[in-house]
Amino acid sequence: MIPVEELLDKIRAYNPKTEETLIRAAYEYGRQMHQGQYRHSGEDYFSHPVAVAYILASQRLDDATIITALLHDTIEDTRASYTQIADMFGGEIADLVDGVTKLTNLQLSSTETQQAENFRKLFMAMSKDMRVILVKLADRLHNMRTIKAMRPEKQLKKARETMDIFAPLAGRMGMQWMREELEDLAFKVINSEARASIIRRFLTLQKASDDVIGRITADMRHEFDKAGIKAEVLGRAKKPYSIWRKMQEKEIGFSRLSDIYGFRILTQTETDCYAALGAIHRRWFAVPGRFKDYISQPKSNGYRSIHTTVSGRDGKRVEVQIRTLQMHDVAETGVAAHWSYRDGERSENPFAVDPAKWIAGLTEQFDAEEDHAEFLEAVKLEMYADKVFCFTPKGEVVKLPRGATPIDFAYAIHTRIGHATVGAKIDGMRVPLWTRIKNGQSVEVITADGQTPQSTWLDIAVTGKARSAIRRALREIDRDRFIKLGWELARAAFDHVGKKATDKALETAARHLNMKTSDDVLARLGSAELTTVQVLNAIYPELMPDDAEEIGKDLAVIGLAADQSFDRALCCQPLPGERIVGITYRGRGVVVHAIDCDTLSNYDDQPQRWLDLHWHGGRHPAVYEVSLDVTIGNDAGVMGRICTLIGEQKANISDMTFVDRKPDFYRLQVDIELRDVEHLHGVISVLEAENDVAAIERLRDPARAAGATQDAM
Ligand code: MN
């Protein structure tokens, strides 16, 4: 725990007139109140408020703010009360402590809209006294610095809050150093892999570029000495999180990021700022479009600085910010500059913005963004917890959803590469294609000419882009096969009626059948979506037998022996157009089941009874009964409408029974007679489109199997 003397030394250094007795009293009062309370780390609880006060003392803040920090958790966590604090330390401090307590009680991490609501509350609290926010931010900063003592889930929750709410808030208060530290601490918790990988990459780059920061700093100093400009040069690498964010925003690789390095030039006078700018632009190339003068046109929050980006002969770019020390103070501490002391006096930085004006600016910004989601989007720094970021061999960043595989990666690069994928390497090692990519890994796709997408890839890919590209490619491959098959079928069928299946004939058929090309006709022929009879009928109706001629029962199923007859199984009620199989019964003929019927497993041990069958491809009469399970709203007219709809589809209702009657709905079994599976789909579609039909399902009931069959004709 930081002793009171050390805290006082820190304060006296910038404010010799500090009210020592009051600070000592607050320290003692806080210590007593928190007596017997401990932090997760096992330390005395009071060490935390003292550390928060110390952070604020480092910001050179006034006595009231420091005392508020010492007492900030007393109302919430101890028997201390507002009145007691007001009696001992005055109303101003009691109000400040009360303000911090209110912020602590905000439920920050609920749904997004609520988070935005809470922002509003935060701003309202702020408009009373901004020092409340300064204490709250220092409180969060210390908690983040000591987060390791918490349970991992709690760490993650706190880190997200920090990233989503507190870091942006520090930014809006103009406290850049605080924002950066909060971001970095949260980043370490939320995505330590990515952070470590960026630091690693940075070190590699730093080594490869042979201490570029040191060299440029020395060069700049030399230029300023030559020109007689008094200036400090501070070179630094950007913080891992801001590099990470840039990589995401621009979706570019680490090595191509232009602004990994930033240089600050701090001068005594404004005149020297422009002189320094001149010296830099004489020595290096100014990158066009990157020059901004916030000294002649300051930002509304009081930020003043000249920004430029220059590049050396090697093409490496660096960002340069030039400002006076006073401007720098405002740029780093923001609104806190207003309260800060130097040599025992309010430092009266001429550039510090009046807190009231600051708030007005923030509130304006808030009102302009009425939509909560949009507002949150604007202030929230998305961490992409559901995304992974990986690198191409060239170091470019590829953003993928979590769970993505090298297949997704390959399609993300280019569809052509996706199609040709035969293997992948992750971090240089061969891996199976189903390997899930982790953050920071580099992925290399191995391709081969002539490779085509595999249907198993559909299970491996998770991105919509990859999946739809694979599906499209598979369809193309199938289509080629179907076209060849369709061509064979068409040639034979045309021959049969004494015609030639010429391109012209097929194009005519396409036109009559409302299709684009003759290939469309052939593909559908090949996939059995179209029959040769339909194609011939479209071109030569006069040659074709009457459409009404339907297939008789003896021809309906192909594959039966001459002395065999069939019945449809009651359990699955197969329809023409569905794949079927027959089960033979001694003396009772053959029962036809749908190939996916559950009942078939009963015959697994009797392979001699299975018969390979298929339906005749021609037009069947509407005699095949199917049961539907229909749930409808309780409305007098519904039954009538259902019967009409089914009738309009030229299907006959053979039976209708109530399964369940509730006050608000009926459930019934409707048995209808159909031509084939397409006919069924037509009926289901029109019923589904009816408002009062709540649910409709084809009834397939294994309970009805037990040898019972249903005569088809
Ligand atoms: Mn606290």
Number of helical segments with 4 or more residues: 28
| 3D shape | elongated
The major sheet is characterized as:
6 strands, mixed
- Termini distance? 94 Å
Overall mean pLDDT stands at: 81
- The CATH architecture category of the largest domain equals Orthogonal Bundle
Proportion of beta-strand residues: 15-25%
Sequence stretches where pLDDT stays below 50 over 5 or more residues: 109-118, 363-385, 706-713
List of distinct ligands in this structure: manganese (II) ion
Number of domains: 5
Structural class: alpha+beta
Work out the number of β strands. Answer: 23
What is the CA-based Rg, rounded? 39 Å
What do we call the CATH topology of the largest domain?
A: Hypothetical protein af1432
Helix coverage percent of residues?
40-55%
Verbal overview:
The protein is an alpha+beta fold and 713 residues long. It folds into five domains: 187 residues, Hypothetical protein af1432; 141 residues, Beta Polymerase, domain 2 (2-Layer Sandwich), CATH 3.30.460.10; 108 residues, Beta-grasp domain (Ubiquitin-like (UB roll), Roll), CATH 3.10.20.30; 72 residues, no CATH class; 158 residues, ACT domain (Alpha-Beta Plaits, 2-Layer Sandwich), CATH 3.30.70.260. Strands 1, 2, 3, 4, 5 and 6 form a six-stranded mixed beta sheet that branches. A six-stranded mixed beta sheet has the order 14-18-16-17-15-23. A four-stranded antiparallel beta sheet has the order 20-21-19-22, with helices on one face. The longest helix has 33 residues. It has 28 helices and 23 strands. Helix 3 packs across helix 9, helix 4 crosses helix 7 and helix 6 runs antiparallel to helix 7. Manganese (II) ion (MN) binds next to loops. The site of manganese (II) ion (MN) has 4 residues, from loops.
